[in-house]
Each structure stands twice: as C-alpha cells, then as structure tokens.
Amino acid sequence: MRFPIIHRSLLIGPLLAVSCGLTHVGCDVRLPNSLSGKSSADGSSGAGNDAPAVLTQVVAQGQLEPLGGVLSVIAPPGDRVVEIPVREGDVVSAGDLLVQLESLKVKTIELDVAETKLEEGKSRLAAEKAAAQARLKVAQTKLRQAKNQLEQSRTKLDIAESPGGSLDLLRRAAELGERKLSRLRNASDNPSTQRLVSENKLEEESLKISETRAQYEAARIDARNAIETADLAVQAATQEIVAAEKSILAAEASASLSSLEKQIELLRLNIETAKLVSPISGRILKIDTMPGQATTTMPLMHMADTGQMVCIAEVNVADLGRIEVGQSAEISSPGLANQLHGTVRQIHHLIASPSMPSPFPMEPVDRHTAEVTIQISPEDNAIAAERIRMQVEVTIFTDASDSAKRTSTSAPATDDATST
Length: 420
Prior knowledge:
Blueprint: H1 8-25, H2 33-36, E1 57-66, E2 71-73, E3 81-83, E4 91-92, E5 97-101, H3 103-161, H4 166-189, H5 199-255, H6 257-274, E6 275-277, E7 282-287, E8 301-304, E9 309-316, E10 328-332, E11 340-352, E12 369-376, H7 378-385, E13 391-397, H8 400-419
Antiparallel strand pairs: 1-9, 1-13, 2-8, 3-5, 4-7, 5-6, 7-8, 9-12, 10-11, 10-13, 11-12
Helix pairs in contact: 3-5, 3-6, 4-5
C-alpha cells in the first residue's frame, strides 16, 4: 500500500502562516534570524545567534479619514426634497446651496405675510401715535390757556381788593353809608333835630347801603368763581394730557410689533432649514437622496474637507509604549497602487476594543487598542482623498535609524520610477 507523498513546501506554508499570525497578534516585529532564515549583520548563521528579536515596526489596521471627519447633512424629518443642485465629487464653498426642500415655498409665503402684517402694524401705530400727539398738543394748549386765565383771575381779585380797587371802593362806600345812616338815626332820635330827618331819608340811605354791599359781594363772588373756573380748566387740561400720553402707550401695546418681529425671525430660521447650505468648504462624497424623496432622520448626503487626510490606526495597547509623535509610517492596501507615507500626528488616550476587523483569523478577540492619528504626506494626500474610510494596513517604524534608512532609500526609487 502506498502513502501519499507530503512535500516540504506544504508544511512550510502553514508554518509561515502561523508565524505571521503570531506576528500580527502583538503587531509586527522583526523576526529572529532563526525563523527568517537570513544571516545576521555579522554574517553568522541564524542557528548560532541567540540574541532577542529587535522590534522596529508596529503593524496595525487603520482607516483613511479627512482630518476634520466626514460631515453628514441632515434635514428636518417630514419634509420632501425638491432640488439637489450639487453632484458627487463637486467642490463647494461654505454657504453654497446643497438641498432645497418642499417647505421652502410655504415658509417663504408665511414670511411675506408676517412682514406685511409688521408693516401694516407700524403704519397703524404711526397713525394712532400721530392722532394721540395731536390730542396731546391740544390738551397742552388748553392747559396753558387755563393757567393764564387762572392767573388773570387771581390778579384781578388782588387788584379789586387793593386800595382804590373796585371792591375796595364798594366796601368803603358801604362803610361810609353805614356811618351816614348812623348819624341820621342819631339825629332822628334827638328831639331837637328830629324834625330835620324824615323816615324816607333813613330808608333811602339804608337802601343805598344794602345796594352797595350787594354789589361788593357780587363782584367778590364773580372774582372767586373766575378763579375756580380757571382752576378747573387747568385740571381738565392736565387730565387730557395724561389721557393722550396713555393713548400713545396703548397704541404701542396693541400693535404687537415685538411678537411679529420674533415671528419673522423664527420664519427666517425656518427658511434657512428649508435651504440646506454647506457649513464648510469641501467636497461632496456621496448623495443618499433624490428629488421627491421624503426626509427622515437619515443623512441626505456626506461631505468633507479633503485638503488634509489622515489615517486612524488602531494600535495594540502592548505596542503603545513604542509609538511616538513624529515617527514615519507606511500605509498599504490591495486597493492602493502604491504605498502611502505619513507621520504620527497624535496618540489618543482612550483604550477600547478595536472597531475594525482583523485580517488574521487567529487574532485574539479580547484585545484592546488605542487610536493613533497619522498625517498623510502632502504628495499622497490626493490619493488618500479618493479612498476615504478604506481599511488599510499601517506600518509604523519605531526605530529611528530604520525609519531614516527607509526614507533615504525610498526617494531614489521614486526618482527611478519617474525617470522610467
């Protein structure tokens, strides 16, 4: 019975796969010469060299991203897309229109109605204030007239009561008549002079006194009445002024202009939400909607500023101590024609489970990683911008001499390729 022949190449393949898997479990290392089969630097064979492996590289999975991230453009739910004036790949500036929604027309009409109401309210308020101002001026004129009349009445009374005034003359005439009447009565009572004073004469003098006193009292009452009338006119004019001022305040309160202005401000904000404009300058990466489609909580499109590209690498926590800012890195993937180059920009401190799947099936599932941001070199930025969110393999060179060697050797190769 013959047994199948197992070639040495079939055994070497699994062995190399296992060694590569173990290499990526703790991130890439430089293999001992005994496994790599290469000679050491001094020319001795791998079997006689017991020196430990020198770790010069860290290999991790990464993802190409714009430095500012990818922006999702979302519209309020319940609306409908009317127009999309941009296409995928278009470069837009901040403020450019991206999507126009169906509610724009309705909200524009609502804004026009509110602005019309505001103008009408302002016109009505101006008319009411003008009428109130006219009433106020009339009341102020009446007040001045009433005050003048009051002052004149008081002055007339003072003049009439002063020596030589009309009231003073009437008072003095009445006093003089009373003295004369008193003498006549004394003469009438005296038997020697009784025949010289008649009863008619006494009555006549008494009547003159009563008439004079009546005139005095009447003139005095008229003067007091004039003062009171003028005082009442002053009070009435003052009340008219207060009423006119309150009518101005009432007109301003009833106009409700402040609420209309707030409503207009809100409608303008609603119009802005119905016209989705670009918040940044960048490139349209993907459009996930079409005209006529209803808006939901899902993004309508994605955009980003691809002027600076980075690679977010998920580095095993066991290798974080060897990572430093400024170290060079290479990025490769089957989706890239050539390797990309970059520099470690930032090492993040949040430790978590990796979000990207590992290409190695024997990778531990309970491993933890931290994100390391790698700045893509300017000459490779355009290529990285065409592969946003593509998963790549990142090699970070932790040995400075090795990194410098790779940098110096990569430049001539590029020149040769260019010349070829």
